[in-house]
Amino acid sequence: MSDTPLLDVRAISKRFGGITAIDDLSISLFKGDILGLVGPNGAGKTAFVNCVTGFYTLSGGAIHFDGRDISALPLHQRGRLGLARTFQNIRLFRRMTVAENVACALRDHADRPLRSLFRFGGDAGFVRAARDLLERVRLADKADQLAGSLPYGEARRLEIARALATRPKLLLLDEPTAGMNEEETQELLADLRRNADLIPSMIVIEHDIKFIRDVSTRVVAMDYGRKIAEGSAAEVFAHPQVVEAYLGAGDADV
Amino acid sequence: MFDRRQLLASTAALAVAGHAPLALAADKPPIKVGSILAMTGIGAVYGILYNAALKMAVDDVNAAGGVNGSKLELLQEDDQLQPSQSVLCFRKLAGMGAVVELGPLTGTSWETVAPIANAMKMPALCFTASKAGISAPPYALRIAPPDDTAIPEGVAEFMKLHPNVKKIAIAGDAQEASGAAGMELFAKMAKELGLEVVATASYQTRTSDFSPDAIKIRGANPDAIFISSLGPTSLPLVKELEVQGFDKPILLNSLVWAGAGFIHAVGTAGKNVYTIGFSTNDVDPANPKYNDYVKRFIERTKTTTNLPQPVNVCNTTLPYDTVFLVADIMRKAGIDGTTPADKARELIRAGLDGLKAYQGINKITLRDTGDGHIKCHLLKANAQTKQWEYALAPDQRIKTPAAFKARG
Amino acid sequence: MSQDLLFLTGVNILMAWSVYIILLSGSLSFANGGFMALGAYAAGVLTVKWGMNFYAALALAGIGTGLVGALLAYPALRTRGVYLILVTVGLSFIIQTLIQNTDYVGGVRGMTGMMGTTNWHVWGLIAIVGVGLFWLSRSHLQRQLDAVREDERVAASLGIDVVYLKVVCFAVGAGLAAIAGGLYSHYMVFINPDHFNIFVSIYVVLYVVLGGVNNFIGPVIGASVMTLLPELVRGLQSYRPLIFGVVIIVLLLVRPNGLLSFRLRTLGAHKEGGA
Amino acid sequence: MIAEQIVNGVVLGSMYALVALGFTLVFGVLDKLNFALSELFMLGGFVVIASVGLGAPLWLAGILVLVVCGLLGLVVEFVSFRKFTSADAQVTAALSSLAVGLIMIDLVQKTWGGEPVSVPVPIEWRRANVAFFGMQIQVMKIVILAVTLVLMGVLHWLISRTAMGRNIRAVAESPTFATLLGIDVKRVNQQTFFIASALAGAGGLMFSLRNGIASSDIGFTFGLKALAIMAIGGMGDLRGAVLGGILVGVIESLAIQFGFGKLGEIIVWALMILVLLARPGGLFGAAHTTEQRA
Amino acid sequence: MSEPQLVVTDLHVAYGPIKALRGVTLHANEGQTVAVLGANGSGKTTLLRAISNMLARSQGSVRINGADTAGVPAHRLVREGLLHVPEGRGTIGRLSVRENLRLAYDLRPTRQSFEAALELVFARFPRMSERLGQLAGSLSGGEQQMLTLARAIVNRPRLLLVDEPSLGLSPVMVDEAFAVLREFQTSGMTILIVEQNVRKTLSFAHEGYILRQGQIVASGSGAELLRDPAILSHYLGAS
């Protein structure tokens, strides 16, 4: 593990009008880390992902990635630097096919899109690369279907495959198992493990505590846009503030 | 009807192919004359008006036995006042075998069609547009007098009637070709006559509020205003000037005289309004042909059109004359319905080439620019009768035409 | 069909494609009538006043207007949706008014003297652009453009330079509209600013929407149908505008996604996708 | 002179504002452009002509304008907007309403011809002038301004004080939430279209009284200008539509006074583009950012 | 015994090809509080939206007070005594607090005046009286949640559908929200609640259903479910 973190989020904040979504939050992550991000709904987890990937502009603080200050970089440059994500409410290109969803994220000619017009060898390379990725997430047989027709679990896997097509250095998953049952969650976990070679580092937002325990090397808990606990999964989930924030102080004695 | 015409057409084809002419003279196929007018959209009021005149002329020619035994057949195309459509219509008419094209309405369309007429070697005769210098002989001639003679002639009579005018304002549609051209001519005239132009107001065809222009003009306190824009655009300005209490004479170029609408809609604002033209609905004791035309035309449009009555005869005599002019040429050249279109067109072109003047209802002199000349006069709006009338008594009118080069 | 109708249909197809190309990146342009005017005048000036070769003039007009389009696109594309529509409508008006006030090209009086286009030029160009669009439709670039159109922000997060693609599309669309304009002016011989009023821009968008925005054939169908329709009902004379309006409304109601609504796939089976 | 131009600009602007208010109401509620409003503005004058022609007194004709244009607005809603509800149907609905407008123009031209038609207002009414601080101002202008202000006041009252207005504002913000509060969104849409169309008709009424004519081709450019004004003021913002209209009216009047009349359309469109570049949400609208959607 | 107030039978809802609800059957007796628990994406919100007719069902039936609601416009259901408080609160931000309450009052004006209804709200939420003229959008998240519940006080629905009332609230506010719901409960209102806060919800619900992938996988009384560690771990992963 090197000394400089891969992702270094320094005291960022994000406000919308009067509402503070993220408040003086610092998180760092090293290459190889898999960071679990937990917290109740509205804690600012998704806002954090949006800030890192460039969907939100920061209200304060700075974000460094791979040794570079990316705070002011536009979305696509962050994507090219190696940040990829999935969305809480899956955002696929619904009217494109499954294979196209993956293929459009593949890199071509060092990101000069017009150059691809002058490639006369056909799409064989893309077809192969896309198929390979789809096989990795068990979707190869659905390659020619419209992405919009996939059921929830498969759509989720396609979104992950699409993110992986960009060859990310850091993958951010926003509630990947939301809406999945036990088996599907386990399968997704297996998918992620199987493709570990393509996922050098990862941040996972999750409600499923078991999943977080299984997957993460480190856990950060958030509430009200702030970090309330950090450490191993066991440490964080034992933290009284986390228990309180997560389960609520029950009226009944349990 | 359709079948009969087809039969006639095939007969003609046989004749051309060298077989013995089978058809009797009375059964000769018709001569096709094309016309391009706006029959739908904003220009329809003009199109309907001129179309009525064209039809009346064709009916009259046919009633008198047609041309060399053939009747005239009017092929009517609608260009909706769009120049690109005019071109389409023009070529379409050529394809349909028209030997000559009459129209279109506006300078913009005429300017578009004229070069094409030459390129396609198809004679075209325009009888309305007022913008000078856009005809293109030998194939594209304009019978109507353009502004470069009409405006000097009108202004001269205007100055005779209002000798005390020293300061004028010029207003006009800067967005429309004939409007802008008229403004330039007005400015040129002012310079020649030593009039001071105290204000110039340029507006657009679809200007919605003429108040600022009227305020500006009123504020400059001119003795008279010269306005150059189409009827629908001039009208609100004239009305606005009235509303603002501006009580000085207003001279509009011939754009408002042509057409059916302005004189009917101007109302009391017409009190000070003048325009330039060469005919009114009034009888002309010197010209019985004209009187007959006016009576018949008004009668005819009452039943066949929904134009505001009594219809403004204005320059509808020109399309009428144009048909007769063409019929004359064809008659002399021996054209009938069996003459191949190409040949007929060349013959008509030759006839037009030799044409120096034509005496129909109007006395038309051809100019070397390919435009016509008819002596124009100052006309005054009569708000009560909703008709134009001559501003000066017959003996007061200026007889000498503005300077122009006649065909030599 | 007459020569002219064939020609105008061809020009309208090129114009529809010029809108389609801009639409590829998800922006709708009501400025293409303006770009057409720029091209028509630029090509006219080059051939008539500067004596340039027709093809060179056409190319130069296209490239020049494309550059103007790119320059305008940067600020214009900061706005979106209805705002972008209004900005491009504004551009159309501004271009028209500027030409009206430019005496060098005759102002409102118009310009004349352009000659020498034939249907071969137009339909040849349609063939070339059509092949290009077909080629594009199977390319990686098309895939990325589709992604941009589906979800701009997600596409950007995948590393696709959305702004660049949008500007390029805008420039290419403007350039194609200019070339169509150049062809038009050299066919009509005479042009004036009124030939390129806002209705041109609106109708061209209408062609694309009626034909279908998801594939490059839709605009061809839309432009052809809407150019030929008024001719087909010419016999009905004064009811043409009414019929035209009713047909638009009915088509939009019956086929809101256009006459041809399928999308061509860039990968795998090239068959019809969902509407 | 300049003061007079400014006063005139305010009057002109108030007519722009009436149409812009119609646009902004519809846009606020449906997020769509209703191009047919331009032609309902145009129709305003013709409704006066028709109803006076049928023997109605002028005051009744004025009320008829509001009713007829409002009812036609319901037709437009049914034909061009009812079916196109999704967000990406924006262009479809706009083009459809444009086609409805084309049909309206054609029907007017079939009935009254393409040239302007006189509106039967006693000329004395139109010609009455008052001197005011050295300015000459037509009484009609004052009347128009007064009527416009009253209409705007009524609109303001309707929108901000009545149950209907509350419903309209609720639907404008979120049709879903509004439905959950028991609001009949379809009915609110109809109410909005009725009001917007009546306002556009009222604008046309004022316009025809002011100019003494009604013209079939006046609507489109006037309407487009009103659209630009809506964008200048901020889409969906009533205050923006009024102030934007007056701003543009005054600027146009002054531009003509100072000899920039040739620029015509450029003025309003260039102003709109500049405003949108500086403030993408318009002068009074909230800045629309893409962030909220992410 | 008459039919329960709300009867959902074999309800199916699909978004295009995606089946969000696959045969949900549940019922709520008058005056009962029924909780629907489930992970994100399990179909809870869809269920509420289908019951209030915001979404078209592809199969199955929903009966309220014995009448099938098929084809009844959503706004009319609301007028007939159903109030659906959506996730994210559903206040109209550009309306003032007073107007938001007025909307609710206009739905079902009671004998008492609007002012009297407001008094009831103030009695529960004294802060609301200070905020009355403010735009709802300018309220803090907690205050907006208060406003949502205040609307139910004014509106007095017979059937209340609540989607995640504790979402984004501080623990104090969550307590407050549940206290209000408990009041509704005692006043005899039928409540269908969707929540993440399992313990709190189950401790006050009469009945609970666990939803997973659009299907009911378990049900029982609130207390039963709460006592069943298997359910809790199943739901929360591990705890």
The CATH homologous superfamily name of the largest domain in chain B equals Response regulator
Number of helices of chain B: 12
Q: Please name the two chains that share the biggest interface, counting residues whose Cβ lies under 8 Å from a Cβ on the partner chain.
A: B-D, 48 and 49 residues
CATH domain fold name of the largest domain in chain B: Rossmann fold
In the sheet with the most strands of chain E, the strands line up as 6-7-8-3-9-10
CATH class of the largest domain in chain B, named Alpha Beta
Shape category of chain E = globular
Mean pLDDT of chain E: 85
**CA(first)-CA(last) distance of chain E:** 41 Å
Helix content of chain E: 25-40%
Low-confidence stretches of chain B: 1-25
N-to-C SSE string of chain E, H for helix and E for strand: EEEHEEHEHHHHEHEHEEHH
The total count of strands of chain B amounts to 15
Tell me what the CATH architecture of the largest domain in chain B is: 3-Layer(aba) Sandwich
Portion of residues in beta strands of chain E equals 25-35%
Gyration radius of chain B, rounded = 22 Å
How many DSSP-defined strands of chain E? Answer: 10
Account of the protein in words:
The complex is a heteropentamer of chains A (254), B (408), C (275), D (294) and E (239). Chain C is mainly alpha-helical. Chain C has eleven helices and two strands. In chain C, helix 2 (32-49) packs parallel to helix 4 (81-100) and helix 3 (54-76) packs antiparallel against helix 8. Residues 269-275 of chain C have low confidence and may be disordered. Chain D is mainly alpha-helical. Chain D is 73% helix and 4% strand. In chain D, the strands form two sheets. Chain D has a two-stranded antiparallel sheet. A two-stranded antiparallel sheet of chain D has the order 2-3. The longest helix of chain D has 29 residues, at 2-30. The termini of chain D are far apart. By secondary structure, chain E is an alpha/beta fold. Chain E has a six-stranded mixed beta sheet, sandwiched between helices. Classes of the chains: A alpha/beta (254), B alpha/beta (408), C mainly alpha (275), D mainly alpha (294), E alpha/beta (239). Chain A binds chain C through residues 53-55, 74-76, 78-80, 83-85, 87, 91, 93-97, 99-101, 103-108, 111, 113-114, 116-117, 119, 123, 126-127, 130, 143-144, 146, 148-149, 162-163, 165-166, and chain C through 135-136, 138-141, 143-144, 146-147, 150-151, 153-165, 168, 263, 265-269, 273-274.
